[in-house]
Predict the structure.
Amino acid sequence: MVSKETITYLCRLSKLEITEEELVKYELQIEEIIKYLDKLDSVTLSDIEPIPLERNFYQLREDNAKSFESDPLGCSKNRKDSFVKGPRIT
Amino acid sequence: MSKLYNLSAKEVNTGIRRREFTAEEYIFQILERIDKVNPKVNAIISIDTEGALEKARLVDRKVRENEKKIGPLAGIAIGIKDNICTRGLKTTCASKMLEGYIPPYDATVVRRLKDDDAIIIGKLNLDEFAMGSSTEFSRFGPTRNPWNIDYVAGGSSGGSAASVAASECPVSLGSDTGGSIRCPASFCSVVGLKPTYGHVSRFGLIPYANSLEQIGPIGKTVSDVAMIMNTIAGADDNDQTIQVTYRTPDYVFSSKGKMRIGLVRELTEGAEPEISKRIYSTMNLFTSLDCYCEEISMNYVEYALASYYTIAMAEASSNLARYDNIRYGFNFAPDGYEWNTYYAKVRSNFGDEAKRRIIVGTYVLSSAYYGKYYLKAQKIRTMLKQELGLLFKKYDILIAPTMPILPFKFGEKRDDPIKMFMIDIDTVIANLAGIPAISVPAGFINDLPIGLQIMASEFQEQKLFDAALLFESKTNINRSPEL
């Protein structure tokens, strides 16, 4: 059972502001989605392990910095001089 | 001059090389065509007129001066899904969160297309961040199905399939996380390929679910799709999931004689009766062509969708965490806001589907539920992979419908997430297992297109092309609707 409180909590964790109207709508929809995902409970998989995608360290590329020809922060709307402005951190 | 916009990519390339027409003449016709039909279908969301004409002139100069280094895709107009970065050209993911984002670099696939002298014509519509199966979740409005504009084009690469069907470009790139290339290809009666995971670089693809998604081509013919695949596939230092040991072959078609084909019973029987009937008749066609066909059964199919959505939403919630509206985004000054409040406020501008996936993804990854959902989903993925591994020892390819239903009308499923999810049932298997799959036009029911899906084992795209080409050559299915 997914309650309004759970949704509010999840929104706080994922930093997502939603309206009261959305909360009502999502509660029903998410309840239904989770119920569908519960289908996973009906299968026994105790001996199975997930297959990880692994790569040895030597197979990775060198960690060298590469520069962009143009300004990678050129799209920020919040520029001041050569800085990017952000909200206050308290 | 005849209608150049109706030519296949291959014909365009040949025509330009033989100087039957110039790339510039061709691009002018393409731009005219876009002007005429795009207001009806809404497949292209930004057009690069100047860039396309400039490249066309460059191609023409190369042809005129008999340069040796004329790329294999010279002159071919191609559209790019708007979640693939194009340097200097707006890339929005159809989201307000990336409004006005102009990437400072090209995705590897885009760079390769440019190096091979293809002409990028514009950016194509999609569901916001590629999350959806109907392109109804785009902030630029839905893409309409060129066969009947009251119906959806499928998704999430709706723009990529509809632009090809509407002859706005002969080929395009899409991305496929759970069917996002194959679904719209099927709904729009064009060919769409989801390559093997690790076959095409994802560098520059704005991520949604990294362990599932691949970039792939869409075209009107199987050979056009193979032609684009030859350019985009292969090793890339910027994508560590590419299997570097694998050498990409040139996909030239080979008739290898008898193919062993398995028809997946669960997927075929689960489709609408008329679609199911058509797919069974496909089996008869292949049998008459000297292929060995039989029906097969898969045990874990019924858990695939729950496994897929668990993994996809978990990865989505993690990927979308980066959007803070500071480095890119829309105009909303942070002055006076505290960090958490600002972050939550700007993120309220995600659309419905993205928000739902962030919330559910956060839920399935939370410590209390991780074992119940995410871990189990990954285990089912293993089971599916093993099951398919055994099947591919016995069969060269597996066939099934691409979509279990026909294209539907706008709004029919938009507010019912489960109904929308269910239509991905036939396509998610290839993403979970990382295998390649292609959708080829298989005819029409009530004037709406259906698609045949063909799957093969990892890196066996050649088998897909051989089977798809054989099917294409024996069926004569319309790919160009009147618009």
About this structure: The first strand of chain A starts at residue 79 and ends at 80. Chain A has a mean pLDDT of 88. Helices of chain A lie at 4-13, 20-37. Chain A touches chain B through 55 residues (CB under 8 Å).
